[in-house]
Amino acid sequence: MMRALYTAASGMIAQQSNVDNISNNLSNVNTVGYKQEKMEFKSLLYQTIQTRTTSANGEEKPISAQVGLGTRVASNTSIYTQGSLMASENATDFAIDGDGFFAVRGADGQTYYTRAGNFVWAVGTNGVTLSTSDGYPVLDSNNNPIILPNGITAESVVVDQSGAVSYRNGNGTYVNLNQSIGLFQFNNPSGLNKEGSNLLSVTPASGNAMNEATTANLTRSSVMQNYLEGSNVQVADEMVNLIIAQRAYQLNSKAITAADEMLEQANNLRR
Question: Rounded to 5 degrees, what are φ and ψ at 160?
Answer without folding.
Answer: -85, 180
